[in-house]
Every structure is written in C-alpha cells, then in structure tokens.
Recover the amino acids of this structure.
C-alpha cells in the first residue's frame, strides 16, 4: 500500500516511476521495498470495494451485478462459454456389455464430487455405527423375505447376540464406559430389580438361584430398538402374507362368536378392493376373506404388535406409544365394553381387547392303530387314483392363495365346475351358424376360390375327398373344409390325426359320398360315436378365420403340423388323383403365363419386331413440359388450361364444354358419337398424307378467328351468358329453346363448309355445324329443328353484337397471318364477306328490334349452299369436324 | 437414315490416354458444339474435364458422394448435369465448378441423365424405374412430370426436340412423343443398355445384353438391322453411330471396339477387333463432328481417345 501511495506521489511530482533513478535502492539493512514497476504488493491495502474474492484456483467467484454478467455463470458454475455442454452421444452398440447404469456421479461436477466424497466418509461412519441394521444396506444384506418368517424371539436374539459388524465410535465409547454387548444402558441394578425387569417374580424363582447372584449388581436389560419396518411389498394394510386361510380356519369357530369387533373389521376390509372394477359376481366374495372368519382383529401393524407382546417387559414409554397408536382404532367398539368382566375399569387410555388371547394351534397326534405298519405304496396308489380329486383339493382354502393368484380369480366356469353345476350348453359358435344355407354356400365358394390356394400351402394337402356316402354329416361341409385348412389338433397322435383328417375329408364335400370311419379294432360303436363327436367338435373349434376376415390377418408363424399323414391309407384311390391334379395345376400355370407373354416374346425372339412388339398408348405430357420443349399440347381438350390457346385449340373446347354445360342432360349417346368421331378422326389424321392438307389448312385459317362467344364460353361463366341470351330470346318468341341459345357462333363462321344440314340426328357426323346440333336434339322435337336453325343464327348474331369492333381488328390480324395460299385467302375473303354483311346487319339490328332480322339467316343459308362444292367431298368435311386433330396438324405443319 | 458411304475406317489409333480416374470410368461425353473437350465421370465420385487433344485434365468436379454414372452437357457448354449413386442429379456450372442445382427425388441411383436441346428440361432415369423430368428454368425443385411406365430400372435415355426415349431393364424401349401425346413401347425382350436415335429421328440403335445391337425403324418399330459378334451380357455398354451414321460402333465387355457397316451389318475389319482396354468398355462415343475421333471409357480406369493415324 505504501508503494502505491508513493507511486502516486511520485507521479504527481512528475517523476517517471519506471526510471532507474526512481528505483534506485538505498537500503542497506532490512528488506527493501519492492521495486516500483512490479509493485505486486499482495499485502497492500485495497479498499473494500476493490477487493476481489478468488477461489483456490485464482478464479473470481463473486461478481457484481454489473461486472459479472455472462462471465459470472461462465466462470463460476458452467465451465464453458457455450453453457452446459451436453455429453455427446456415444453409441453403446459395440460395447454393450460394458455399459452400466448411469450413476449419480456422472452428473456431478467437481464440487459435487468433493462434497460427495466427504459425504461418503460420513456414510461409512454411519454404517459402522449402524448396530441393528437400520440402513438400507443392512436391510438388503438381510434379504427380503427371510426375516418376515422369523418370529420375534429369534429376531431379537439374533439382534442382541450377534455383535455389531464393527464397533462404531459410540459403541467404542460405551465400551470404554463399561458397556457390553447385550447389556442395556443405564445405571446398574440389583438382582431383584433385574428379575422384575425380566418379568419374573424375584421371590418365587429364588430357589434355583444361588445366593451369590443376589449380591451383584447387574446391567439393566437391553432394550430392543424399535425398528419401523419398511414396507417394500404391495400388500394392503394389515395384510399378513404369512397368514393364510389355513391359519384362520383354526380359529374360525371362535371368531364367528364374536359379533362386534371382527364384524367391523371385516366390514372395513371389505371396503378394500371392491371398486367398480370388480365383477358384480364377486360381490359375495370378500377380498380379505380370512379376516371375516379369523378371530383376530388385525390392523396396520399387527405383526409388530405380536412381536411386542412377546417382549413382556417394555419400557412404559414405548408401551404408551404403542397403545396410543392402537387405541385409536378400536375406540368405538370398546365404548360398549368399558369394564372388565369383573367390573374393573381399564386404565385410562386403554381399551379392553375384544379378542381372546390367541391360542397356539396344536393338534393331538393321531392315534396310531395297533399293528399298523407304514405302507407307502398304498398311499401312492391312492394318489394316482384320486388325482382328479387332488385338483379339486388344490382349490381348498387350506392352501393360502397368493395375491396374484387370487386376483386372477376363478372364472364362472371354474366356480360352476367346483360347485358341480351343469355347464351351460354354449358351444363355440361361428357366424356361419347364423347364416342361411344359401349364403353359406355362396361365401364358401367365394372364400374357397380366393383364399384356398394361399392357405392350402401350409396344410397337409386336403385335396378332394373320397367319394363315400355321407352317413354322419354332423359336420357341415364348409366347416370341415375350413377345419382341414386350420389348426390340426391331434398332431401328437398321428393315428388319431389321420383319422381326424379322414373324417374331415369325408365331410368336406357336401355332395360326395363319404365312407364313414371304420371302427378301429376293438372299438365299440359307442366309442366310435364319441370319437366322431370329438372330431366334430374339434372341427368346429379349430378352423381358420373364415371368409373375408381371413384376408385381414396373417398368421405369425407356420403351424406345426406334426408328422405328415398319408391319406392314402384310408383312401387309396384318392392319392394318385390328387397328385395328378396338383401336378396339372402346377404345370398349367406356367403354361398360361407363357401363353400370355407369347406373342410379344415370341416375336422378339424371332426378331420380328414391329406391330407385335409395339404398344401405342396415349400419354399426356405435362403442359409445362410441352412449353419447355416448345411443342403444342397434343391433347388440348384437357380443360381450363388454355392460357395461351391457339384459336384452334379453343374451338374444340367450345364444342366439348359449352354444349355439355348448357344442355346438361344431353343424351350420352350423342356425346359418345362425338367422342368417337373425333377419335377416329385422329387416327385418320395420323394416316393422312400431305395431299389433303390444303383443305385442312383452309379450315385452320377459318378457325383462326373465333367468335367472342367462344371466349365467353371459356372465360365467362356459362350461366350468365346463357341466361342473358335466354332472356332475350324468351322475350322475343316465347319458344323454350334455352339449350340452343348458347351455341357459339362457330356455325356461322364455318359457314363455308356447312352444307344445308339435314335437320335431324343424321347430321351428327357430317358437318361442323351438325356437331353442335345433336346435343340439342334430345330435347327438341324434330319439328322444331328447322325453326331452331333460324333461331340459332339469330342468337349468334345477338351474342356477337357487342364485341364487333375489336373483332374486326382481330380479323385483320388473322388475315395477315393466314396468307399461306392465295387460294385460301381468296376463299377467306369470300367467307368474310358474308360475315361482314351479317355484322352490318347486326349493327343495324342493335338499334332496332332484334327480331326483325329474318333475312340474314337466308344469306347465310345461301352461302352455305353455295360454298360446299369447292370444299370437296364428305370425307373432307368429316375431317373437319374434329378439332383436336386439326390442332395437331397445324403444329406439325409449322414445325 | 443416312446413306451409307461404304465401309469407313474406324479411328483406331490411340491418340491419348486419360488415366487420372481412380477406379472404373462409367461415362465419357463430348462437349457440344465443336466438341473440343471431354467430360468423364467414374467410380471415384469425380467428374473430370479433359482436353482430349492434349490429353490434359482441365478440371475436376467434386461433389458427388457416390459414383458418377451419367453426364449430359448443355447445348452451350456452360453447364452440365451429372448423376450417379447419390440419387440426385447435379447440375453444374462448368466454369465455376460448383453445382447450381441438386435435383433430389429419385429413390435410388440415377443411371441416366439427359438435357434437352436448350437445357430447359432435364430428364433423369433411375434404378427406381422412373424417369423424372425436371424444369431447369423455374426455381421449383419438384419434377415437371414423372414417367413411371417402366417396370424396371431405366438404363438409358435420349431426349431430343420432341421425344424422350428411354431404355429399361424390363426390355422395353419407350418413346414418349410429346407432339402426338402418345407413348410407343417397343418390346425388345432383353434389358436395354443404350438407345441412340439417328440424327434424323427415323431409326434407333438399341443395344441389349444379349450381345445384340439392333437398329429399329422408329415409326413402325420394325427391325432394320441386327449387329452381332461382340460380347455384351452384363454391363451397361453403349452403342453409337459412327461418323455420318455410316457405321455402328460398340465397345464391348472384352475391351474390344466393334464397328459394323450400318447397312449390311458386316463387321468392319479388323474382325475380331483388337483388345484395347483391359476391362469392359463402359462408354463409347464418336466425335459429333470430327470424322476421325472417338473416345472410349473403360472399367480399367482409363479414357482413350482414338484417332486416325495422321
């Protein structure tokens, strides 16, 4: 501290403390002050607030609230910057043998460990001092069950006689003070006192004791420590496992005479274990049955009570404690009997025991008859003979029942059997017993066809049965069949099994003639009948889960079927047949497979690749894939995704969706016709050469400009549109033709090819326009059809009306695009002219009443009549009618 | 079909041996364009870029955790795709040498990978019997479509502008025609190890492990020619067309490079060809433009560049 002050002073004076001059040492005697620069003066005074507390390793242990922070936890307790480091996972797979349970030490840090080390030392000392083994280690050393059986006296003797394993400090001190093992602690007592302490009358017992003994002082009697035993078991309170029914029976007659106490105890104990979970049947059975009949009223610490009674002399204190604890319970019953029989009242705080002094059960030795000689063989024979009775005896109450055993209980059947009741006639039934015969047969057929091959594999070849008369059809055929497939009960007895199988086979086929089982040599008809009934029962029992349920289960393991039984012994004729048939089955299957694969494989083998080896099927590439590959979607009729639709793809869609939507219930037949025609068209297209392309290109061009209706049909909700139009039309000429209204204007566009379509259904395959028509036919009468046509054109115009301006632009664009062939173009023009006319007219109509415009349809008709000739034959038209094919054609063309 | 120009001499003079691979080389592909470079992938989990002219290795692409079974180079040589045992397809940036995409989805190793003409779609055929088509444009990592018609491992793939051709161990060559929207399955009868359509798309060269290389008419599925003589029974070997598609080349399991005349299916001299690799030739590829160059990759760990003696 002085150096610090000095340094400060020097610093104030402006002297460099680290210079040599300043550090020059003038001391000749004594210890010089430490040099200034390394002034680590540990003894230096530091004000309190600067002092630091450090542990033995020099780590700061105390941190202020503002100086500690993270590092406080880090340095003090955690030990790493990251916090507690969880131990990394180490696989114990390789050294599983070495692995052991985690000890508490594994989770302790060094401080804990040192603490524990200290503790361990203490624990050792405790253990040394543990004279009577109260600690856990002592208990475990003594073993669990052994001691319980030991009676109190031996236990006390053991405890008192056996020396403590090692003298503890206290024991050593006591020994130095004159104490010996087995003696009590306290001042010495006289012989007389000692006798009294031992409960003997000093005056009476004096004769066999020598005088010398009375002259000495004795150590007081040793008092046993009160050891509260751990309750390691799961018995109920007051349950004495050593005390069985047998013991209780001995006292039973007496106990039954005791009305109050035992009854109450019984009632109390009855309260145990009789909850909702117990069977109603068991109501009459008491859980602690023996307590009812047993004369003793036993409660929580009975066992120790007994023991205490044997210690005749007890210090008054302990006895008080005991009796206090004890008195709590029988208080109420004792209220009746306050006095002894002789009129004396018991001491305060005591009650009169309502149970008699326990008697030792002793039985008189049986009197051995005169001239009796032991003959063990007789006993053995008796045992053999009465083995059945033995089983019954086992249930006798003389055997104490283990708790678990008791809990498992006896079933109603067992009880009934014990009581000699006749068993209820409830044979195990299958669901088949409740099904009509007809259904049974049907189910059987189904199951046998479906499941037989699978399950037959793990049975010893049931096979077709022998044709023999069905004399004893006690077993249903299907039951027999099932049993054949199921568990074989008599595998241990091959002969019996064989007979069983034969029996089953005889019954397996309902219609067939079955030979009844021959009597075994030396078998009476009754025996045979019994055997048959046994078999019938077994068949009913041991059959696999039948029918549809079987498919839901797989057997965990293959049944042990025992020795292989050769049915040929009984049915020699069946044997070869069976093998043949099975062989046939085996051989047929591969043959069939070969046949199946044949054409293709054969062709491949021969090298005749081509039609035989080629399969063509539809495949829908994802739209995105087509986009990425720059290919048009080959099957654009897949709905809705016409985001970048070519007009031609839109057209078929309109045909597909709009009419269907509107017509709703359009007949399926017409739909199919449409689909079929388009499909065939596709195929045609695939085979069509380039020669016919002109017309198609034409066609495509005409389709370049779809009517707004189509767009509406696609993008607008159909309902609105149709409703609007419907309204219009309905207003005009009250004819209900709502389905027809929605027809896109396509017909008018494709007018070029349209022949004057026949009004009826025949149209279907001929013309574009017609493809729309059929969908409406089902609802219309034929008479209306002509009318309809007119109206249709009207409607088209009506729908087109609003969007004309934009459409023109489109048209121009379309035209410029479609300049592939002059001829086409020309024709297009031709086509457009009428349209334009129409449009004009429509524009005119807009202003006027819509229904004045009858003429336009005529024009259209005229055009349609005129134009077809240069379009070519019907074949051509037929091709036009399908949209998708057109699409593809175009794609190919422009690639 | 390209017209035959008479028997052409196959480039059989060893020009360079590229032997940096440790373990078998599974695939070697020419780059696109003038094909001045070569990419090879092998059991050692690397893809190596070579200059076949000088025989020097330019770059090693290391990211695969398993063997590399297939490589496909994009049209502009800026990226390539590789696949192999690690069930995902890696798309690489050639210059940066890093993977730009890892397409995971296959259930087992990916035997074949192929980019389409403009590297927007990647097709990968796997041991799990599916072909997955991946979109390389969109950031979405799910496949566009899964072609699961194959009943067994897909061994080889070919993608051109409008079709996807797959060869599978189930003995089928499947042609997915995008334009027609149809799938043509041609039953070959034997596991198919390679498919190579001619450039005009009318014929298809198919090698199967019954030691046959067959030439099919793609439109009808008819057999046009059958090339035999070589040994091909268990490995994935590859048949390819020679220059101008006048010949058919096949590196077989004995380490011989066979050549046939396309039209008359006669083995070109020498017959039998000399053994040039110690082990099975896993990949044979003819230079796309240069008439006199060819590369072979072999399980003996080498890639050999063959040229005409000059």
């Amino acid at each position: 501290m002085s150096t610090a002050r000095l340094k400060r002073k020097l610093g104030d004076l402006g002297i460099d403390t680290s210079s040599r001059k300043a550090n020059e040492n003038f001391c000749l005697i004594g210890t010089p002050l430490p040099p200034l620069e390394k002034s680590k003066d540990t003894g230096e005074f530091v004000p309190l607030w600067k002092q630091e507390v450090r542990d033995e390793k020099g780590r700061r242990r105390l941190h202020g609230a503002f100086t500690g922070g993270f590092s406080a936890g880090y340095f003090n307790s955690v030990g790493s910057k990251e916090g507690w480091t969880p131990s990394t996972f180490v696989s114990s797979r390789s050294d599983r043998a070495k692995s052991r349970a985690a000890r508490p030490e594994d989770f302790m840090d060094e401080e804990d460990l040192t603490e524990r080390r200290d503790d361990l030392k203490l624990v050792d000392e405790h253990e040394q001092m543990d004279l009577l083994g109260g600690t856990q280690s002592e208990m475990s050393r003594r073993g669990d069950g052994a001691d319980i059986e030991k009676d109190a006296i031996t236990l006390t003797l053991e405890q008192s006689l056996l020396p403590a394993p090692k003298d503890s400090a206290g024991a050593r001190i006591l020994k130095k003070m004159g104490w010996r093992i087995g003696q009590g602690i306290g001042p010495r007592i006289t012989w007389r006192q000692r006798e009294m302490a031992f409960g003997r009358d000093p005056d009476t017992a004096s004769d066999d004791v020598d005088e010398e003994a009375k002259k000495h002082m004795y150590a007081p009697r040793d008092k046993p420590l009160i050891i509260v035993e751990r309750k390691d078991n799961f018995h109920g309170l007051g349950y004495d496992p050593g005390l069985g029914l047998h013991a209780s029976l001995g006292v039973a007659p007496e106990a039954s005479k005791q009305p109050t106490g035992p009854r109450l105890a019984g009632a109390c104990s009855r309260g145990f274990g009789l909850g909702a979970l117990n069977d109603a049947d068991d109501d009459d059975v008491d859980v602690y049955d023996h307590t009812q009949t047993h004369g003793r009223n036993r409660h929580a610490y009975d066992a120790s009570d007994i023991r205490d009674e044997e210690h005749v002399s007890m210090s008054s204190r302990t006895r008080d404690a005991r009796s206090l604890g004890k008195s709590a319970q029988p208080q109420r019953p004792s209220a009746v009997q306050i006095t002894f029989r002789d009129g004396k009242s018991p001491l305060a705080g005591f009650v009169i025991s309502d149970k008699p002094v326990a008697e030792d059960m002793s039985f008189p030795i049986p009197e051995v008859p005169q001239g009796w000689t032991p003959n063990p063989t007789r006993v053995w024979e008796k045992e053999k003979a009465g083995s059945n009775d033995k089983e019954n005896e086992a249930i006798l109450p003389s055997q104490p029942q283990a708790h678990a055993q008791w809990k498992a209980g006896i079933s109603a059947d067992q009880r009934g059997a014990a009581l000699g009741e006749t068993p209820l006639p409830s044979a195990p039934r299958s669901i088949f017993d409740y099904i009509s015969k007809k259904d049974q047969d049907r189910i059987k057929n189904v199951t046998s066809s479906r499941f037989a091959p699978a399950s037959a594999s793990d049975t010893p070849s049931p096979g077709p049965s022998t044709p023999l008369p069905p004399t004893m059809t006690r077993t249903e055929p299907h039951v027999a069949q099932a049993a054949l497939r199921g568990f074989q009960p008599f595998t241990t007895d091959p002969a019996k099994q064989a007979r069983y199988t034969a029996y089953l086979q005889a019954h397996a086929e309902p219609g067939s003639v079955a030979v009844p089982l021959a009597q075994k040599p030396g078998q009476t008809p009754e025996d045979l009948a019994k055997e048959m009934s046994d078999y019938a029962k077994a068949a009913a029992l041991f059959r696999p889960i039948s029918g549809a349920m079987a498919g839901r289960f797989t057997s965990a393991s293959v049944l042990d079927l025992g020795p292989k039984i050769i049915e040929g012994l009984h049915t020699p004729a069946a044997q070869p047949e069976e093998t043949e048939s099975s062989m046939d089955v085996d051989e047929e299957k591969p043959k069939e497979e070969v046949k199946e694969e044949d054409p293709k494989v054969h062709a491949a083998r021969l090298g005749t690749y081509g039609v035989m080896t080629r399969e063509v099927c539809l495949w829908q590439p994802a739209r995105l894939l087509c986009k990425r590959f720059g290919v048009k979607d080959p099957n654009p009729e897949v709905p809705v995704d016409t985001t970048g639709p070519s007009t031609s793809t839109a057209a078929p869609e309109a045909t597909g969706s709009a009419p269907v939507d509107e017509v709703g219930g359009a007949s399926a037949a017409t739909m199919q016709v449409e689909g079929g025609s388009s499909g065939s068209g596709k195929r045609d297209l695939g085979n069509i050469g380039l020669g016919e392309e002109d017309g198609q290109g034409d066609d495509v061009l005409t389709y370049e400009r779809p009517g707004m209706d189509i767009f509406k049909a696609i993008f607008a909700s159909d309902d609105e549109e149709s409703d609007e139009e419907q309204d219009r039309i309905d207003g005009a000429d009250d004819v209900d033709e709502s389905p027809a209204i929605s027809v896109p204007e396509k017909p008018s566009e494709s007018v070029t090819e349209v022949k004057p379509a026949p009004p009826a259904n025949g149209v279907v395959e001929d013309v574009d326009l017609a493809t729309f028509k059929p969908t409406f036919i089902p609802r219309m009468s034929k008479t209306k059809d002509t009318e309809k046509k007119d109206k249709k054109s009207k409607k088209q115009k009506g729908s087109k009306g609003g969007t004309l301006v934009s459409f023109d632009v489109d048209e121009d664009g379309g035209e410029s695009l479609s300049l592939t062939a002059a001829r086409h173009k020309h024709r297009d023009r031709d086509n457009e002219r009428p349209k334009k006319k129409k449009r004009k007219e429509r524009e005119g109509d807009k202003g006027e009443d819509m229904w004045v415009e009858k003429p336009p349809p005529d024009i259209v008709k005229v055009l349609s009549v005129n134009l077809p000739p240069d379009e070519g034959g019907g074949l051509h038209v037929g091709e036009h009618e399908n949209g998708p094919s057109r699409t593809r054609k175009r794609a190919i063309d422009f690639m | 079909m390209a017209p035959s120009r008479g028997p052409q001499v196959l480039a059989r003079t060893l020009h360079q041996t590229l032997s940096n691979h440790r373990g078998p080389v599974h695939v070697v592909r020419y780059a696109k364009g003038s094909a001045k470079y070569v990419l090879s992938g092998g059991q050692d989990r690397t893809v190596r870029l070579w200059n076949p002219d000088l025989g020097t290795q330019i770059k090693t692409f290391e990211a695969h955790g398993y063997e590399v079974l297939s490589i496909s180079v994009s049209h502009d040589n800026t990226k390539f795709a590789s696949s192999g045992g690690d069930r995902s397809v890696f798309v690489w940036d050639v210059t940066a040498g890093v993977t730009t995409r890892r397409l995971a989805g296959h259930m087992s190793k990916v035997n074949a990978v192929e980019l389409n003409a403009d590297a927007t779609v990647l097709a990968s055929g796997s041991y799990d019997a599916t072909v997955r088509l991946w979109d390389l444009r969109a950031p979405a990592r799910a496949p566009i479509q899964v072609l699961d018609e194959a009943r067994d491992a897909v061994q080889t793939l070919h993608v051109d502008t409008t079709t996807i051709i797959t060869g599978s161990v189930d003995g089928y060559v499947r042609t997915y025609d995008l334009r027609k929207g149809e799938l043509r399955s041609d039953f070959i009868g034997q596991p198919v190890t390679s498919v190579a359509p001619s450039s005009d798309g009318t014929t298809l060269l198919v090698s199967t492990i019954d030691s046959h290389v067959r030439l099919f008419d793609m439109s009808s599925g008819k057999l046009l020619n059958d090339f035999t003589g070589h040994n091909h029974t268990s490995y994935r070997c590859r048949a390819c067309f020679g220059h101008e598609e006048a010949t058919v080349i096949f590196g077989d399991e004995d380490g011989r490079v066979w050549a046939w005349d396309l039209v008359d299916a006669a083995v070109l001299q020498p017959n039998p060809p000399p053994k040039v690799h110690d082990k099975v030739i896993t990949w044979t590829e003819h230079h796309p433009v240069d008439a006199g160059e060819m590369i072979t990759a072999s399980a003996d760990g080498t890639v050999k560049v063959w040229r005409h003696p000059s």
